[in-house]
Amino acid sequence: MIREALLYEKLEGERARCNTCPRHCVTGEGKHGFCSTRQNRGGRLYTLVYGEVASVSINPIEKKPVFHFYPGSRWLSLGTLGCNFRCPGCQNWELSHARAGNWLGTEYLSPEECVGLAQRYNCLGISWTFNEPSIWLEYTLDGAKLAKKEGLFTNYVTNGFITEKGLDLVGPYLDVFRVDIKGFSRKSYGRIAHIADFSPVLEATIRAKRGFGMHVEIVTNIIPGYNDDEAELREIASWIRSELCASTPWHVTRFFPHLKLSHLPPHPDSHP
After folding, report:
1. H helices of 121-223, where?
2. Which of 42, 52, 208, 234 has a CA positioned 20 to 30 A from the CA of residue 4?
């Protein structure tokens, strides 16, 4: 379903600047931004994926992975198409790397139907996952508001690359922020996520924890030669301790070859 985007600016010449993620894509008539889910139509920006579900399932919360928020509970998990990153080893690339004009099949699911499914299958909450949920901001916001009214918990499985305005919209309605910290250097984030500045990820994570009181868990997938420098990993640990708290869960996960990183070996499961 097509809806007008919540966060954008109209510019001269019927251009529009998206303010959902820190890329702040500027598009002209008929053009899409980096995530490919938003299109300029007559100087207005529209989301093309409102309620368009590409994958839905019932999962234990540990699959997110979230291990310290109602362990063993069941969550309705759903995602759409597109992402504001293009990680070369993405496990869900069929969804997250989809481009406008080359969509896979989706099925419309209203926020009311989404909440109804969660209730029908006795889920504790709703998790927006499989691809980056912030590019689905308009839909996840409506769904999260309704979920909270119905007594359900809510979860973003996210790369954390969202603007302050975007997080401030949905933050009051989120309970869990399971965020990837993919590295701790411009080089690592440049190679993995194709962004020069990863500070917005850190700022959003701090804001989720301190500003909105969300339960935060972090994942770092260790990719050989990309982000496995011990000094960089120590920096992540120090940042978690100083900016969040020492008890914040940090899942350091093992890399397995996939997609454009299929030539790399699996990360060893132990160090000498």
Report:
1. 137-149, 164-170, 186-193, 199-206
2. 208
* DSSP structure string for 210-249: IIT--EEEEEEEE-TTTT--HHHHHHHHHHIIIII-TTS-
Edge-to-edge strands, sheet with 26-27: 8-11, 15-18, 26-27
Residues 6+ apart with CB under 8 A from 97: 83, 86, 90
User: Whole-prediction pTM value?
Assistant: 0.95
Residue 272 pLDDT exceeds 70: no
Judging by DSSP bridges, how do beta strands 26-27 and 38-41 pair with one another? Answer: unpaired
Packing angle of the helix pair 137-149, 111-120 (nearest 10 deg): 50
Determine the 3-state secondary structure of 166 from DSSP.
helix
Residues 6+ apart with CB under 8 A from 132: 35, 82, 83, 84, 85, 96, 158, 159, 161
DSSP track, 24-60: --EE-TT-B-TTSSEEEETTEEEES-TTEESEEEEEE
Show the domains of the chain with their CATH numbers. Answer: 3-47 (no CATH), 52-261 (3.20.20.70)
The position carrying tokens 């603007």 is 163
**Does the pLDDT of residue 178 top 60, yes or no?**
yes
pLDDT digits (tens, 9 = 90+) for 58-90: 999 999 999 999 999 999 999 999 999 999 999
Residue-wise DSSP of 12-23: GGGEEEE-SSTT
- State whether the Cα torsion 261-240-134-139 is positive or negative: positive
- Cβ contact 21:162 at 8 Å: yes
120-164 tens-digit pLDDT: 999 999 999 999 999 999 999 999 999 999 999 999 999 999 999
Joined together, the tokens standing for residue 254 give 């093992």
